[in-house]
């Protein structure tokens, strides 16, 4: 396994919170997934679009992309447009900014064997900008205090600070499928302080397989999350509650349960999936057996079905208006807004109880309405 896999920037959120998890995860190889390949294809297309926008000699990769579709094309166009807007903005104070695509960034000064690839780095007098494209749809990624982005920024600073006299670091996550453009700005001094006082000491522990195990949100992509004892202990703290009717619990107890509920649910689901895979491989668990889940009826041959129904004098097809997401993918966001912007509205979302740190504004509850009246 390559050395850089041990303390990668992409997994830094995990090993910064749980240093010894790095070596444990390194002992288990990465599993290829459709999502990973889709992300790789999207990055390849983004690189091509941006190189083309910068009038660079480049080759269209579309025929080699396994997961290429209209949505990916639109996302890559949006990414290239966004980056070019940043370049033009920088030119107002620096006529010759350096724009680097898929740039190798070495931050081994702070992390043993630490390096990564920056999707786009814009270097100019005073400001260093690192832009990271995220094709994922499931998780909203924030640039604020994002350790992956900060590692990349340290690597970029090592390369270009002496040439351009950088004062400010600007980090942006561009996630078009979530309509998310998140930017975090900090001074060079703040970044270097984090690198020296936070990143470097913890990286040394992680590289040596030392430090304390810790469970939390960072467990999500850990390869050991299903069998990690620390995570089990963290979630089994809820076992001290008998889960009686809510009326028997006071507000403080409910708050404790709420603060752990999402992690508990995720942990239980991980355990169930892990146990299922082990059982399929022959492991026996007392009191459990493998059965077939619920199945649904499907057509063996859709063309034959259509012909048979048509011959019987019926219409086998339904006509349905594309949903907003599908229509946006078909038209592209810009054209969608031009044609349908005035015909789209957004219904209020279903009330959801979330931690206080969630960035969404609080809605009025019945109690607040009563107070206002």
From TrEMBL:
Where are the annotated segments for Disordered? 351-373
* Signal peptide stretch: none
Q: Which UniProt keywords apply?
A: Hydrolase
Q: Which domain of life is it from?
A: Bacteria
InterPro entries, sorted: DUF2800, PDDEXK-like_dom_sf
Gene Ontology molecular function terms on file: hydrolase activity
Residue stretches of biased makeup (Polar residues): 364-373
Recorded hits in Pfam families, A to Z, give: DUF2800 (PF10926)
- Which protein are we looking at? DUF2800 domain-containing protein
Q: Origin organism of this chain? A: Clostridium chromiireducens
């Amino acid at each position: 396994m390559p050395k850089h896999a041990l303390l990668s920037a992409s997994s830094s959120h995990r090993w910064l919170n749980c240093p010894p998890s790095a070596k444990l995860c390194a002992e288990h190889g990465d599993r290829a997934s459709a999502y990973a390949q889709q992300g790789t294809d999207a990055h390849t297309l983004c690189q091509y679009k941006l190189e083309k926008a910068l009038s660079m000699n480049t080759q269209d990769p579309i025929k080699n992309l396994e997961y290429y579709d209209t949505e990916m094309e639109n996302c890559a166009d949006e990414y290239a447009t966004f980056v070019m807007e940043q370049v033009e903005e920088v030119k107002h104070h620096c006529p010759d900014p350096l724009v680097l695509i898929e740039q190798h960034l070495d931050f081994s000064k702070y992390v043993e064997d630490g390096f990564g690839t920056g999707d786009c780095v814009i270097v100019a007098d005073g400001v260093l900008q690192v832009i990271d494209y995220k094709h994922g749809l499931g998780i909203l990624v924030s640039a604020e205090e994002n350790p992956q982005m900060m590692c990349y920024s340290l690597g970029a600073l090592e390369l270009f600070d002496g040439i351009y006299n950088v004062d400010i670091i600007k980090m942006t996550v561009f996630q078009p499928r979530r309509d998310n453009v998140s930017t975090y700005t900090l001074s060079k001094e703040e970044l270097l302080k984090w690198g020296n006082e936070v990143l470097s000491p913890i990286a040394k522990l992680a590289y040596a397989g030392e430090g304390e195990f810790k469970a939390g949100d960072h467990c999500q992509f850990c390869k050991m999350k299903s069998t990690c004892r620390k995570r089990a202990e963290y979630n089994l703290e809820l076992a001290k509650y008998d889960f009686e009717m809510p009326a028997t619990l006071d507000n403080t107890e409910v708050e404790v349960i709420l603060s752990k509920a999402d992690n508990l649910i995720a942990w239980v689901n991980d355990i169930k999936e892990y146990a299922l895979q082990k059982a399929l491989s022959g492991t026996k668990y007392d009191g459990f057996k493998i059965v077939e889940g619920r199945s649904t009826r499907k057509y063996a041959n859709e063309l034959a079905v259509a012909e048979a129904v048509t011959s019987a004098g019926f219409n086998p097809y339904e006509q349905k208006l594309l949903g907003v997401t599908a229509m946006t993918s078909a038209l592209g966001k810009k054209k969608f807004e031009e044609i349908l912007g005035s015909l789209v509205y957004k219904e209020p979302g279903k009330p959801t109880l979330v931690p206080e740190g969630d960035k969404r504004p609080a809605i009025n509850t019945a109690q607040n309405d009563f107070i206002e009246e």
